[in-house]
Amino acid sequence: MVVALATGCGVEGESPEVASAPANDPGTALSASTLPSCAGLEEPEPGSCVFETTGHYTSKEPYRPLQTPDSYTAPPAGFTVQAVQHAARHGSRALSSAGDDDLMLQLWSQARSEGALTPLGEELGPVLEEIIRVHEEVGYGLISRLGELEQETTAARMVERHPELFRSMVERGDRIDWYHSGRDRANQSGEAFIRGLVAAMPELEGLVDPGEASPETLYFNAAEGSEGYREYRASDPRMRAAVESIEEDPRTRSMARLMLRQLFTEAFVERLADGGYRFEARADPDDVLADELDAADVLFGLYSIGVGMTEEADWALGRFIHPEAVAWLAYVDDAGSFYGRGPGFSDQDISYRGAEALVRDMVERVEAFLAGGSSHPVTVRFSHAQALMPLAAYLGIEGSSEEVAPDQLYRYETHPWRAALASPMSANVQWDVYRNDPGVILVRMLHQEGEIRFAPSCEPWGGTETFYELSEVRRCYGI
To answer: What is the pTM of this model?
Structure first.
């Protein structure tokens, strides 16, 4: 069975489309007219724009597997599972640093001192204090309990999918090795995953090597040799023009004000927009809230991170978020990821080329084990969206790799890419490796645990849909 990847994000069964405006002419150059449209932005009423009203967590979307262990296509006759390669993003987490919560509390406190809070805005302050308290307990930048559960249950399903592989490993004394990016939340995620493996099959305890950092394969866009990518992110004029045309579109500012007017008086929002206030995060003076765009971005950051911390607290942050505004802000956020670490433009691959190091490592580890040069049939890895988004694009995964023409703009209504699909929290790519007696090696790829084809340039094996010879994987990716 091949999973048809939905183009939705947010709450299950709901669409993420920001707008349903007619598509522009394919030859249209970059302009505001190619952005999602919305009528009545001066004083929009709920429902006046064609937006979904919930979800829109973008890359903070909690993990959901796309298939269950009992629903996969059986391997071709005569093939048995030999190895697994697994690369995952870290689990759901807390805010990466003390910034959004601190800045919003400073803004709220200023509004309270001026008597500029709406009744809904009055409710926000105690919630912000609770968010800060919980973060001090969990730790900024670290994974939440939900993040641990995502990894633990993914590991349990791996064992459930391949019990024969893990039993044979126990009998032979084969080992499992695991790697992380070098960042704490990636290391934590690996530890949670290993706990899940051992809980599912206790005999695996003692067969797991200590985790090791591997930035060259799991943080490749910051590793040695990534100077070209970093220059692209910092200063590529075409990429910056595309992102800025979205960020600076007047509708972004209108949506920010729409969001804030729910919480603060009109006069206070206008003073903020006119530069009347400036707040610096105590942990980082360079992290600043100085206008309505900054304030809306901070509020969106709090909203999107809260969904991954529901095991710690239920802050019901959706009540502070205007549905039309959050949908637009999600689009702006997705656009930055699409160009910065996703498929990007159709005439370049700089945004995802670095993932080749990870794919090459996966291929070589499979070959080493099957050739008898390794005693590790299972390798698991833990990284970040900075690796999983490029990986999905590099592999040509449907829904996560489609580019845009240089003269067009990424838009929700015409393009399937969503961060919530390409790299939600605990996103993963898994290769299940099979071999038969003549020694043919086949690979089946899973994305978020759903069967998925390799790139269109790769040819499936022998009339199958999702099984590929390992040599064909090498050929079609030029590895």
So the answer is: 0.89
